[in-house]
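Title: Request for sanity check on NADH:ubiquinone reductase (H(+)-translocating) prediction

Description:
We are preparing a figure and want to confirm that the structure record we downloaded matches what your pipeline produces today. Could someone re-run it with the sequence below and paste the raw C-alpha cells into this thread? We only need the C-alpha cell string, no images.
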Amino acid sequence: MYAYLYMNMSLFLFLMFMMLMLLMFKFIIFKLSYFLEFILLDYMGMKSSVIIYLDYKSLLFIMLVLLISSMILMYSVEYMLMDLYKIRFLIILSMFILSMILMIIGQNLLIILLGWDGLGLISYCLIIYYNSWSSFNSGMLTLLTNRLGDIGLLLSISLMSLLGSWNYLLYSYYSMLLFMMLMMAIMTKSAQVPFSSWLPAAMAAPTPVSSLVHSSTLVTAGIYLLMRFYNFMMKNIMLKKVLMFIGVLTMFMAGMIANMENDFKKIIALSTLSQLGLMLMSLCLSLKMLSYFHLVIHALFKSLLFMCSGLILHSMLDNQDLRMMGGLNLNYYLTLMYFNCANLALCGYPFLSGFFSKDMILELLLVKNSLLLIMVILYISIGLTVMYTFRLLFYMNMMYMKYNKFMEMKDNYYMNMSMIILFLNSLFIGMFMSKLLFNMMMFMFLSLMMKIFVIIMMMIGMMLGMMINYIINKYYLKINLLIFILLFMKYMYGLSKFLVFMKKLIFYMKNMNSWLEKGWVNFYSIELLLLIYKNIFFFYLYINIINLLILLLGLFFLI
C-alpha cells in the first residue's frame, strides 16, 4: 500500500515537471515574465495581496525541485521499506516541496519569508527523523544557525517597510544595511564561512533527505535569493569583494577537509559546500547566468551522487566509514557506473555536464583579470576537488571490502530506476542547457597554456589525491604534523566546536540567571558575571586564532 502511494506521488510530480517544461520553453523562446497579484483582502482602503513572479529562472528551478523529488520518492520505496512512519515521511517531504516552491515564486520578502521559515523548520524535522541524540544535536546546530539567517531576513523586511515596499523588483534605491541583513541570511542558508559546520552535521538525516534537501534545493536557496537581489549587490563593490573572498575561502576550506574526512556522506556534503562557494564567487564576478547554470547542473549530479551513496550504505548496514568500503565493481555494476559518472561530472571532467559550467567560469575568471590571490586559491581549490573525487573513486573501484565479506550486495530495482533520469542528465544536460540559456556563442581567446590550465590542475589534483591516500594509509601514525592537520580539519577549523561552545554557553547563562533570581545576586554582581562570560568568549576565540596561525605556518613550511 505504501509503495503504491509513493509511486503515485512520484508519478504526479513527474507529470507536473513535464508540464512546466513545456511552459518554460515558451518563456525562454518568447522572453516572457509574468507578474501576478492576488488580492486576499480589500477592506476600506486596506489591501492584502500575494504577489507571484514567474520567469524562466523560477520555472526551471521549480522543474528541478519536482524532478529530483519525483526520483527521491521512487527511491524511498525501497530505502524506507523497514521504516515505521512512512506516511509521516511522505507528508514532511510534501511540505518541504511546497515551501520550496513558495520561496521560489515569491515576489516580496514576506512571501519569501514564509517559504524560508518553512524550509528551516521542515529541514530540522527531517534531520531529527531518526530519534537519537546525535540526530538531535545535529538538528539543533542546524536550527540555531539558520535562526541567525531568519533574523537577518526579518530585519530586512522591517527595513523595507520603512522604505515603502516589500517588492524587491521595485527598488532603485540602494541601502547597505539592507544588503548586509540579506547577506547574513544568504550565508547561513548556503553554509558559507563561518556558518559552514551545520551542513556536514545535517548528514544525520536519511539519505533521501540528504539527496533532496542538503544537496540540491535547500542549500541553493540562498544563492537563488542573492540572484534575485543581484542589482543590489552590483551597486557596492566592496561587499562584492567580501562575498567573493568568502566564497573562495569556503571552497578552499571544504576541499581541504574533504581530503581528510573518512565519513562517506560528509565527504559528499563537503563537496556540496565547495560548489556553493564556487557559485557565490562566480555570482560576485558578475557571472549571473553562469552561476545559475552551474546551480541547476550541480543539483542534478549531486542528488545522483547522494542516491548512489545511499544504496551503498544501505547494503553495508549503514556503516559510513570510507576505509571499510571497496570491491563494488564486483557487485554494483549500474550503481558504480552512476557513481563514477556523477563524481567525474563533479570535478569537471571534459564533456560531462559539470565541464560546461565549470570550464566556462574558470576561463572567464582568467579573462576578467581578477585578483591574483583569488585566482590562486580558486585553482588550488579545483585541484583539491579533483583530489577528493579520485580518492572516492580509488576506494570504490580499487580497494577490497574490509567490513563484512559475507554480505549480499547487489543492485536494487527501484533505486536504480530512480537514478536513470538523473544519470542521463549528468551526461547530456550541460550541453543542452548551454545551447538553451546562452543563445550566442561565447569565444574566449586564451593562450594554449591558459586554455589547458584547468586540465593541468585536474591532473595534478588526481596525482596528489593518490599520493595522499598512500601517505595516510602508510604513515598515518608517524607524522605528527599530519595528525595535527587531520584533527584540525575534522572540526572545520574550530568552527563546529565554537558553535557547540556557544550553544552550551547560552544554556549556562540561562541556568545562571535562575540562580541569580534565587538569591545569588547578593554575592555576585551582574557586571562581574558579564566580565567572566566575555573573558571565556575571547579566550576561546584566541585559541581558535592561534590554531589557525599554527596551521598556516605548518602549511607554509610544508610547501
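Thanks, this matches our download. The longest helix spans residues 526-558.
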